[in-house]
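Exercise 3.2. Students should predict the tertiary structure of the chain below and write it as structure tokens, then compare their answer with the key that follows.

Predict this chain's 3D structure.
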Amino acid sequence: CVKSKWVFDVKRSGLFKARLVACGYSQVPGVDFTESYAPVINDVCWRILIVVMMVLKLECKIIDVETAFLFGDLDEEVHMTCDAVCEDDEVLLLIHAIYGLVQASRQFWKKCVEKLRKIGFSGGFPDPCLYSKRDELGIVFLAVWVDDSLLVGDGRAIEKVVEDLKREGFSLKEDGSLDDCLSCEITMDKMKKIGWIHQPHLLTKLEKRFGALVEGMQSYKTPSAPGGRVIQNHGGVVVSEEKHKLFRSGVGMLLHLVKHSRPDIANGVRELTKGLVGPSEAAFKDMLRMIKFVLETRNKAVKLEPVFEQAEEIIWNVLAFSDSDFAGDAETRLSVARFVLHLMGVPISRRSKGMKIVAQSSTEAECIALSEAAKEVKFVCQVLVSLGFKVKLPIAVRVDNLGAVFMSDDISVSQRTKHVDVRCRFVQQFCLEGFIKVIFVKTDENDADLFTKNLDGEKHTKHAGKLVADEGG
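Answer key:
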């Protein structure tokens, strides 16, 4: 049987509020639950919705389902002990989920999807948390994040959806602003022509924790030393336990900044993650330098400024840049794959990740990076089509390696490329179908170059300016 306990919350009035919660750690897999995973909206998808809102001049609203985890129906027969109401040989049979159950989140998601389909929403592919509805009142797109949902659409249609959800039994809190959307603050001008994705609360926490440590440090024009790299510390001198905790905390905060509002520091933060197990003093200083740079440029945020032509039917334009740093890791000789993807000129997806295999040439490394970009392009295209939009084809993918361009079009093999199999064929198939077109671009004009290496001040400013800008500027 699942154990339970009482949790007491203190209200502002000084009174206590008791809640009975399940002790999830006492649940037995395969007996008390079979599946527990609950999906949430993909980061790329909710950025797409923000761009859609700006292009189509739609309204938005965030709704929060109160006591969400009490709505789910249980698929398994779950028994729970409760000393307050049960005798020694008695247990409770749970019909609905309660807080603390391992599967509570998943069961709520299933209930939420059931209700959304009942009131007319369709979708769920390619993202299981993205839905749309079209009727005589207009269009509504809905993104689910646990018990929070982002509604984007025509005002009357949104109000009708809220009313329908309440009629289905959900108790909702409504917020008509984007001041707190997935831990981000999204601001826009009145005409919704320009917007910014910022994380002021996280910056405040970062300053509170590290402000005193970086106060007297020198100011820099770049987040990391140009060309600098972090080497994994195998058995060398590591920092103290206190500094080690600070290092992990600082890198974790920086990773969250990269995820939403500061892609310009992505490569430097990726390098810092190499030192999480045992950071050296040099790695710790690099982290402080990064934090100093972030705090001094705290007004910078991802800039949202869609560029498109007004027409009766808008054709959605997607553009991708891919790049790699051949054998960039001096220890493992692994290369780094990078790409950035723009929708209507707005950066909605970017990635900076070390490859899993050792590439034998710069062309092979570029082909691997190109295949990663192609996969993301396919996903974004699927999302746009699922929302009912028309995408301009072929989608341009720009790379700065002629060998990768030739290999994407050439189905023949050579002595140096015959081992490059699945990834290359994957890209070639897209090219033959007319889905993507691989185009050469100079390195200086490749937006993904920012994510492959730590650049000097001039190059960093040039590339970062395409992704982030001073908020309100």
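Discussion points: The first helix runs from residue 43 to 56. The chain has a mean pLDDT of 88.
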